[in-house]
Design goal:
The protein is of the alpha/beta class. It has ten helices and 15 strands. Helices cover 31% and strands 28% of the residues. The two termini are 19 Å apart.
């Protein structure tokens, strides 16, 4: 059976007062990592709290850690960025403690505002692959943030395929690259040199988190756009569903002739849409290279991006290929 992940936008009314079997939060160095948990607008039977090993001495991390101690009686499970084994073990342990009721959907909420892409890709991959025996509804919450600075320049890590986003092996095919752009100039250029795609498209958030963020992204990535990109598409930060549809419209004409590589350097809702696309289409992969924790302060704007992902037994779209 081929599992398909169906993504739709939802409103705050859909999560306000909702009862979730499991909530997954991240205790990070950004103020926004406690914005949604601090609203306490939903009810959580069980909470899994993940923390960053590299942020243990960060002042905001310590404040967030104290918030979870006082409000949820929890201490974070401390993880290294790339420790997928520990993430898997934590997920397995958390889901094993959830009561499954026959005929009732399992409801999960994930606040990925301060999560690395690697983490929420592994969470979604776990939800997709694990047989719960009941329907699963997974709501993803993103607290839109204002970056007070562009952070500290870091060296890119070696590129990795995000969990569950591996493409099928295909020889003698073209490569189409879709680069989601953000506030880092060097990342897309470096990965473009490594991938060497035959065709390159760029994805930019419009509107972005703030009024000037789109123009700032275009300005920062001017060299990439002028020298590597064959075309640019825009999608709002606030709609994972619309971004997913936009990405699919870009790669679908090449689905039978090329391997599609999505590189999500842009905002996290665009990264989530990219991950879902790669999990749904075996011809698509999602490749990422981390800059690590920049320590850049990010304050919540109070706006939330809310998305619902459901596991379906098959794609709702007919495949004419």
């Amino acid at each position: 059976m081929s599992i398909y992940l169906d993504v739709t936008d939802i409103s705050f009314e859909d999560v306000e007062g909702a009862n979730y079997d499991l909530a997954i939060f991240a205790c990070g160095y950004e103020e926004r990592s406690v914005f949604f948990p601090g609203m306490q607008s939903s009810k959580f039977k069980k909470v899994l709290l993940l923390g960053f090993a590299e942020s243990l001495n960060n002042d905001i991390f310590l404040l967030n850690k104290e918030f979870y101690r006082l409000n949820y009686s929890l201490a974070p499970i401390i993880l290294e960025y790339n420790d997928l084994n520990q993430i898997f073990s934590s997920l397995l342990d958390a889901f094993s403690g959830v009561e499954i009721i026959e005929g009732m959907p399992l409801r999960v909420v994930v606040d990925y505002s301060s999560m690395p892409r690697l983490w929420y890709s592994e969470i979604l991959n776990f939800v997709k692959c694990y047989d719960f025996g009941v329907p699963v509804i997974c709501d993803f919450v993103y607290s839109v943030g204002e970056h007070s600075s562009m952070g500290v320049l870091s060296q890119l890590s070696e590129p990795i395929v995000l969990p569950g986003c591996e493409a099928v092996s295909a020889y003698n095919r073209e490569t189409v690259g879709i680069f989601s752009l953000g506030f880092g100039e060097g990342g897309p250029i470096c990965l473009h040199h490594k991938i060497e795609p035959d065709r390159t498209f760029s994805l930019v958030a419009r509107p972005g988190a703030l009024d000037d963020y789109t123009e700032k992204t275009l300005s920062i990535n001017k060299f990439f756009l002028e020298n590597f990109s064959n075309g640019t598409v825009f999608s709002p930060l606030t709609s994972v569903q619309q971004c997913y549809d936009t990405i699919r419209e870009v790669f679908y004409p090449y689905i039978n002739s090329a391997v599609i590589v999505i590189v999500p350097f842009g905002p996290k809702p665009h990264a989530l849409a990219s991950i879902v696309a790669a999990m749904n289409y075996p011809e698509v992969t999602c490749l990422y290279s981390s800059l690590g924790s920049t320590g850049c302060p990010v304050k919540p704007t109070t706006e939330l991006v809310l998305s619902r992902i459901k596991k379906l037994d098959s794609s709702p779209y007919m495949n004419f290929s």
